[in-house]
Amino acid sequence: MTQSPPVHIVGGGLAGSEAAWQIASAGVPVILHEMRPVRATEAHQTDGLAELVCSNSFRSDDRETNAVGLLHEEMRRAGSLIMASGDAHQVPAGGALAVDRDGFSAAVTAALAAHPLVTIRREEVDGLPPESWGSTILATGPLTAPGLAAAIGGLTGEQELAFFDAIAPIVHFDSIDMGIAWRQSRYDKAGPGGTGADYINCPMNRDEYEAFIDALLSGDKTSFKDWEKTPYFDGCLPIEVMAERGRETLRFGPMKPVGLTDPRHPDVKPHAIVQLRQDNAFGTLWNMVGFQTKLKHGEQARVFRMIPGLGQAEFARLGGLHRNTYLNSPKLLDATLRLKMRPQLRFAGQITGCEGYVESAAVGLLAGRFAAAEALGRPPAPPPVTTALGALLGHITGGHIAVEGEEAGAPRSFQPMNVNFGLFPPIVAPTTKDGKRLRGNEKTIEKKRAMSRRALADLDVWLNETSLAAAE
């Protein structure tokens, strides 16, 4: 059988790596273009594929009542390289799936480098791919090279929106005072590979919390030209920006003290708690949960050492800030992620307007499957909207409602989105065995479980109907 022409992929992040794996697994050759280390970015530290530059968490692994956990399971069933590598390199994180970032990236890189149908080219693509490439997936992520970003803007006629993603600091374990801090997951919940004591907790009383808020608000921060015109994504707000929204905001966000008890002082309820999550397999590095920041580096060390238990903290990495760009995808992309004005080009990952590691990889998975199907002469079929994959794709390509005047040049309202059950079609609320209606939290949980059952059943049908296994 004559081998089909290769599919080109620009960008070796989570989306590009997953797309490459899906295409090669279907028996179609892939050329993966990754600009690192030829051109570095302000956020990456290595030249590894699928490097995690912010948190090391894939968030909840609960496939029954959490939409991202359901997305995990759907991707596993679809043969995801990102999920297989994440599962193989998980570190304890309560109910979340967190990974050893170096081991994870190394596993993805090794798998793609070893695949006979994958060619990795270390080079920058600084403009639109030539039409001679044929089918191409642009998965350049939030740090798209300026030349390519400008070329995309010129082609689409769209002024891309920009926002800033912030990175949390990482602390060396042996610099944490465990005489003050203690280990416990919220509500003692044990997740994949966890024990129920997977987080390090640093307690604050009211005075310590108030002093900390004062320091956050007054600390010297990184600034940018036209800063006020550039929004943040709400799922990755710098901690000082959250503090600016109200002095109690952090106590109801990343520093909430619920579900945790200091074993040395069980009768004393902390006013706030800072949590750290294991960042590598050795347990030597710990990520400050929710502590994305735009404080300058010197200020970070000063302010964060005010936290009880971190008075002598040594930082393996301080926080930072990087720019993100994304398309007006509902207007520009079709239902299989092709650029309407140039169908040879597909987009995948965060540049499409999804947000989060898993979501980016999921869109890469879909783009890869669509491109592989086309290469094999089969019609690309989107997943059912009842699935997490389909719901996410629907938000990106058709689920958005334009604000009045948007087409006439008003600021567009399409915003990056994490997967959530609000993107799914509604479902009839389940009842008890005797036919009585459920109410309150019990009703909410059972509706989520019903959505998840429906999603996985529909996914299995879709995977069977769109199987590319015959090409392997």
UniProtKB/TrEMBL annotation:
Gene Ontology CC annotations of this record: cytosol
Residues noted as binding FAD in the record, renumbered to the chain: 11-16
Keywords carried by this UniProt record: Cytoplasm, FAD, Flavoprotein, Methyltransferase, NAD, NADP, Transferase, tRNA processing
EC number: 2.1.1.74
Catalytic activity: uridine(54) in tRNA + (6R)-5,10-methylene-5,6,7,8-tetrahydrofolate + NADPH + H(+) = 5-methyluridine(54) in tRNA + (6S)-5,6,7,8-tetrahydrofolate + NADP(+); uridine(54) in tRNA + (6R)-5,10-methylene-5,6,7,8-tetrahydrofolate + NADH + H(+) = 5-methyluridine(54) in tRNA + (6S)-5,6,7,8-tetrahydrofolate + NAD(+)
Predominant cellular place of this UniProt entry's protein: cytoplasm
Family: Belongs to the MnmG family. TrmFO subfamily.
Molecular function GO labels: flavin adenine dinucleotide binding; tRNA (uracil(54)-C5)-methyltransferase activity, 5,10-methylenetetrahydrofolate-dependent
Protein name in UniProt: Methylenetetrahydrofolate--tRNA-(uracil-5-)-methyltransferase TrmFO
Source species taxonomy: Bacteria, Pseudomonadati, Pseudomonadota, Alphaproteobacteria, Hyphomicrobiales
Domain MnmG N-terminal: 7-378
Record GO biological process: tRNA methylation; tRNA wobble uridine modification
InterPro entries per the UniProt record, alphabetical: FAD/NAD-bd_sf (IPR036188), MnmG-rel (IPR002218), MnmG-rel_CS (IPR020595), MnmG_N (IPR040131), TrmFO (IPR004417)
Coiled coil: none
UniProt-annotated location(s): Cytoplasm
Group of enzyme by EC: transferase
Annotated source species: Prosthecodimorpha staleyi
Protein role: Catalyzes the folate-dependent formation of 5-methyl-uridine at position 54 (M-5-U54) in all tRNAs.
Requisite cofactors: FAD
